[in-house]
Amino acid sequence: MRKWKRILSSYIIAALAIMPAIGERALAESGISELSEGQFVQFGRYQEDSIVWQIVHQEDDGSWLLVSRQILALKPFDATGDQVDYDGNGSPDTNDEQRANYGSNYWAKSSLREWLNSENDTVTFSHQAPDNNHVLGNFNDYAGEAGFLSGFTQAEREAIQPKVVKTLLAGQDAGQKQGGTQAHTWSSASETVLQNEETAYYQKVTDRVFIPSLKELKEYIIDQGGDPLRIPTASAVSRSEYKDKTGITDQAAWYYWLRDAYSGNGYGVRIVHSMGVIAAANAGGGTVGVVPALVLKPNLTVASGLGTEQDPYVVTGSQTETGSEPETDEDNSPDNGSDNGTGSESVSPNAPAGGINSTGSVSPNDKQTVTEKDLKQDTASGTVTVDLEAGKRVLELPLQSAALIGNTNLIVRTGTARVVIPPKVLVSMAVAINETDAKKAQIVMVVEKASASGVEPWQTDLGASLKQMGDLYHFDLYVRTEDNRRIKQDAFAEPIEVMLPYPVGANASVLGVYYHNDALGKWEYVGGEADLVNGQIKVKLNHFSTYAVMEYDKSFADLPSSHWASSAVKALAAKHIIEGVSEREFSPDSYTSRAQFAVLLTRILGLNAKGTTPFVDLKEGEWYVDAVAAANEAKLIEGRSDTVFEPNAPITREEMAVMLVRSYEWAAGRQTTAKQMVYTDAEQISDWAKPYIQQATDVGLMSGQHDDRFAPASFTTRAETAQALLNLMKVMDQSSKYYRAQ
Known about the structure:
With about 750 residues, the protein is of the alpha+beta class. It has 3 domains: about 75-150 and about 165-205 and about 230-290, no CATH class; about 345-555, no CATH class; about 565-735, no CATH class. Helix content is about 20%, strand content about 25%. The chain is built from 17 helices and 35 strands. The strands form 8 sheets. Strands 19, 20, 21, 23, 26, 27, 28, 29, 31, 32 and 35 form an 11-stranded mixed β-sheet that branches. A 7-stranded mixed β-sheet has the order 10-16-5-4-3-18-17. Helix 13 (about 595-605) crosses helix 14 and helix 15 (about 655-670) packs across helix 16 (about 690-700). The two termini are about 45 Å apart. About 45% of the residues are buried.
């Protein structure tokens, strides 16, 4: 059994050399114990109760996989009532309706996963929340409960190492798989429960907290002679709304969830039965227990305890390093990604994640102190630039930096990456500190290349793939007071521009910047425009986290690479602006409706509606209503009359030209002027559209058809729409350098 020796300071080693014996408890309290598989750890709290975990496995990097020793609560795996196209076939079907009735066994989108990984007082569920009306039997809803991690201290949350977890999928979700060739074969006996597990359909996501899988249960607990049964805590029994009907007690084993799906349908989830066999239960049922699991980083301080179940080690969350005192100044753990800012879009429920870790504790050699002299303005360029020295990843800036640099940007360069901080950001950080805290306070910026353990290319059978292109970067920005408290803003006062390099030879049109949402285990698209001269992707950010340049390649069966619009569709799909009519088809020759074009424009411009529209034919709740309202407020789009919009009518070429020019002018902040009309069918163009059509041609937004005709009344196909929108984005970038802040 593998063991990890805790760190000994030199004076303790000397003391041990002259002491013939010392008791186990004295050893533990002196910090000289050994951690090993099978021992017990007290770490974190849930509902005011301390949680006791068992160490079931040591990972290859020395970290420790912990599984709760008891059932902490009874909760549904997933809410009922979701009308979600889980299998990605274009629309909800019978399989999806079953999930709406009984909950879903799809771990990546489950309510339980989102609750376990949340540290917020109010959990924002991405789908139907598990309220009292959306759990089977109305038992044990938790929509209003604080996230599981809310009971942990900040140090404890930082001690948790995100883990890439493998989850077996239902057979109907084969289209979402990352690997596997067949559905998992049912077995209720522990001896055979893993048959064909290695070839079964699976998916990988990254979680901070999860529940055990069949494989982890079998290999790390059962095969090691451990007890797979779990007994509810007294608090779990008292809180359960199901207790009076079942006689559930804190003296006997009870059922609990595993994270793997029953392969035969979309709502069955594998569970450990109270008798020890491996069974299944409906995902929406609130009568099954929750046994959380997590991974602790190596080198954590044990404050006390013997490591037994009766006297577990107490882990505080602080880390130690060999030969030195622990450095606790800097926060190098990735942001949990809980900020669902405008424009942030999940690439897929099973987007790759792969354990994003920073490079460890901060030593004095990691830090670079910026002096007032360093902030002297470069009068030639009108900027202040600080180069992060090789091997450094932490900048310490004076709190009064904003006053020193004046009304100019602070540029931080590290290798080929660059961060541009507006002075307004520095001012807002300084004024947020009271006079007492301001004494000897510093602005701290972390810029480091984060390690990525197992960030693998991800793809599905539906023609989409996501691949990391270059390094991962972890950024952080906060004020550190003299007593080492960190004061951090949830969002910057003004977006910060970040430029990340991409490899030479990469197809820049399908690249974008993604941030890692640790809480959900997903890479989420945040935007970005390519700087072809410097080989960078530029993006403006409202918060810091872990980021990477990714290549998103989406193909459609009816749009071969030889099609004239193929590259435009790929580029817009990579920016998560345009979608197919289904996962497999784009339908390039179908017409674009007026509502669809309004939606696409608002995605590009980042517009949000502030009010309503005068159009009586827009039905409340329809998918396009907010987009039409936003485009109408920005004066980009009008109705066919003052009160009628005709959302489902195909958009004509002259209507599209008008909307494109108005969008360009809105982004550029100026109006354009048209040259003389060059089209032979100019007399067919409506008077209200004539100036716009020539402007669209001059700027490069649209071009005519054959024989120098514009064909103003012709309907616009989806392929033509894609090309026009890509033209719009190109000229906006060239003219206004506009792109959305995420």
